[in-house]
Amino acid sequence: MRRIKMLVFDVDGTLYDLKKHEIPKSAITAIQRAKENGYLFVIASGRAHYGLGKALNDLRPDYVLSMSGGVVSDGDGTIISHHDMKEQDVAQLLAFCHKQEAGLVFKFLDHMYIYQHPEKINWLEGQMNSDIGKEPFIDCPSQDHHLVALPQSASIHADPAAVKRVFKDHERLVFLPYSKDGYDVVPKGIHKGVGLRTLMEHLHLSKEEVACIGDNFNDLEMMAGAGVSIAMGNAVEAVKAFADYITTASDQDGIYHALNYLGCF
């Protein structure tokens, strides 16, 4: 018999379907029913915990693994743990982006600071005009907020060849591609699996008490840390091959079927 107590969900391609870019009603209903039955509901995302958007906030997560697992917080925004970038790595990344005239956003615990070339950041306008809104973003042409506090991650848009040439085998930074020239930059060793382990330790949960649902490569580490892993029907083949169960696609009631498989209602 399963002893699942906590359900962990990726966002894009999992909670959000990639066709209508919304959370299906069946997923909302399934999550609400699972919460009513006592299951903890956790969101795991590359987004910042303060930049989830109204649709995700309305689901009222119990915990959030944000910035690719580098920040763990509860549903009220109280920080449980965070991993900061090193001062010298921030300086190197900033110098690189200056030279390359790259788009650059640093993500801090309070806001996302737009350092330069917002027009090159392909997700920025869409997020600001979505239910996330403009409040989480601060225009920072002085490019100096990192002198006050260190960021936990960054998003850059730069020539991939230049990124590879300068940062290949970097000692402390990892570049996670999300588009042809876009990267989430996080401290080496940070991924959703790290955030999940931190939360499990905080809540004194065992692996057997956790189920994870995802669709892409950056979900594999957290799926490996769970007792049950579920791949969406639209997941990449590597995730499907790893998963214990493959549900239907995100726009085909995939979350509902996944939680029904887990016996959450």
Estimate nothing, just give the exact number of structural domains: 2
> What's the name of the CATH homologous superfamily of the largest domain?
HAD superfamily/HAD-like
Q: Write down the overall geometry.
A: globular
**CATH class (first level) name of the largest domain:** Alpha Beta
Number of contiguous helices: 9
Amino- and carboxy-terminal Cα gap: 15 Å
Average pLDDT reading: 96
Got a strand count?
14
**Helix/sheet category:** alpha/beta
Using the coordinates shown, work out and report the CATH topology of the largest domain.
Rossmann fold
- Beta content comes to 15-25%
In short:
This protein has helices spanning 25-36, 54-57, 87-100, 124-128, 160-167, 192-203, 220-224, 237-242, 254-262, and strands at 6-9, 40-44, 63-66, 71-74, 79-82, 103-107, 112-116, 137-139, 153-157, 173-177, 182-187, 210-214, 228-231, 245-246. It is α/β, with parallel strands linked by helices. The two termini are 15 Å apart.
What does this structure look like?
This protein has helices spanning 25-36, 54-57, 87-100, 124-128, 160-167, 192-203, 220-224, 237-242, 254-262, and strands at 6-9, 40-44, 63-66, 71-74, 79-82, 103-107, 112-116, 137-139, 153-157, 173-177, 182-187, 210-214, 228-231, 245-246. By secondary structure, the chain is α/β, with parallel strands linked by helices. The protein has 2 domains: 6-82 and 191-262, Rossmann fold, CATH 3.40.50; 87-187, Hypothetical Protein, Haloacid Dehalogenase-like Hydrolase, Chain: A, domain 2 (2-Layer Sandwich), CATH 3.30.1240. Strand 7 (112-116), helix 4 (124-128) and strand 8 (137-139) form a beta-alpha-beta unit. The longest helix is centred in the middle third of the chain and has 14 residues, at 87-100. The radius of gyration is 18 Å and the shape is globular.
